[in-house]
Structures are given as structure tokens and as C-alpha cells.
Amino acid sequence: MATFEQIKGFIFDLDGVIADTSVYHAQAWRQLAEKLGVTWTDDLADALKGVSRMDSLELILKAGGKEAAYTQAEKEVFATEKNTNYLNLLKGMDHSAILPGIAEFLTDLKANGYRLSLASASKNSPLVLEQLDLAQYFQARVDPTTLKKGKPDPEIFARGAEVLGLKPEECIGVEDAKAGVASINGAGETSVAIGDATILKAADIIFADTAQLTLANIKKAMA
Ligand code: G6P
Ligand code: MG
């Protein structure tokens, strides 16, 4: 692991780290899955975290043994339907969707001169950041439509450092998904995971929730 003093930037996942939007994604997928006759489970919900829209749909169809049941055109319609469900849920989102301690942490990072980028697989991430008035904290964002491979591939977090003009070892990546932690580790950055330690055990540092995400706690964990 890098030393705390080496760190110059933070690369953030969005859904489930900054905003409580993972529940909206899950709800929107569940609506579609049940319509297609696929049983929704907690394991399926976990497997979808951090995964792109089309890859999520493939995982859902596979879970229901329906991977060969639909044409590409039908799949596109399903993915659009999920996104419409999701955008409808987002309409009800206000500042209370900012996860505990995140506003304070972002303010603290800015005050201490750290550079911040966003490495979210979501095409809706600019909308979410704007709606929560958090866009001002981020110097850069990786556009997920330009990626060859999604999480767990290291590409998105490697790009998250590049867009800040930083080396991987100068960056901390923050994630709530197993696939995201794998991406951070593969990029050679320090991984901070938020959530269940049994699922996220590959991370360098694990906090149970975002309220624990402070510079002081990170410094202590890196010592
Ligand atoms: C994030 C979420 C996933 C979501 C993906 C794509 O990684 O954790 O649940 O499927 O973004 O989001 P989008 O808004 O582009 O469908
Ligand atoms: Mg996430």
C-alpha cells in the first residue's frame, strides 16, 4: 500500500458511495426482472453493483436462464425501460440521498487540496451530481461510454488517475462494489471499500459505512 503522504487525489464511484442511488438502480432492475419472470435475490442485486447497464441486463437474463431468449433489439428495449424506471425514481431524489458524512468529506478533501475525479459506470452520473449540487467538487470525470471494458477491468480507475494528471500510486479509489474494488486494485491504486467486509475483503481499507470515511481514519488505516 502507498503511504498517506503520497496521496494527491481521490477517485470516486458514485452510486452507493456518494449517493444512495444503488437502491434506485436495484428497484428499477427488479421491476424489469420480475416482468421478465426472473426471481430477484440479494445476491443478484450485489452482483449488479458497479456493472454497466447492458452487462447488468445480461446478468439478470442469465440468472433466470433466459440468456438466449431475446434478440439484441429486444434487449435494447429492456435496457431503455430500466433506465426510464430509474429516471422516474431519480425525480424524487433530494439532498437527503447524499450518504452520511460525504458532504463533509468532499469539503475536507477540497480544503486540503486533493484532486477529485469520478469513475462511475453510470451514464446518469452527471445528472445525479447536478441534482445533489456536488458537481463543483470534481475536477474531472471518466466518460463510461469511452471505455473498452467496464469494472472489474482496471481501465476506468486507471483513467480516473490520468484525467487528474496523477500516477496510480498517488490515488485512492473509493468503491462499494466488489467489481469496483477489483478495478482499483488492478489499476495499482489504494482501495477504500464501503460496506460488508466479507464481500469487499480484497480492498486495502474497509469501512462499514460512509460516515467512517474521513481523512483521519484513512491516515490511521495507512499507517
Ligand atoms: C453504476 C451502478 C450500476 C449501474 C451502472 C450503469 O455502476 O452501480 O448499478 O447499472 O452504474 O448505470 P446507468 O445509469 O448508465 O444505467
Ligand atoms: Mg457503486
Automatic annotation (TrEMBL):
Database matches in InterPro entries: B-phosphoglucomutase_hydrolase, Beta-PGM, HAD-like_sf, HAD-like_SPP, HAD-SF_hydro_IA, HAD_sf, PGP-like_dom2
CDD domains, per database record: HAD_BPGM (cd02598)
Gene3D superfamilies, sorted: HAD superfamily/HAD-like, Putative phosphatase, domain 2
Record Pfam families: Hydrolase
Gene Ontology molecular-function annotations: beta-phosphoglucomutase activity
Keywords: Isomerase
Transmembrane segments annotated in the record for this chain: none
Catalytic activity, EC: 5.4.2.6
SUPFAM superfamilies membership: HAD-like
Family according to the record: Belongs to the HAD-like hydrolase superfamily. CbbY/CbbZ/Gph/YieH family.
Protein name: Beta-phosphoglucomutase
Organism: Agrilactobacillus yilanensis
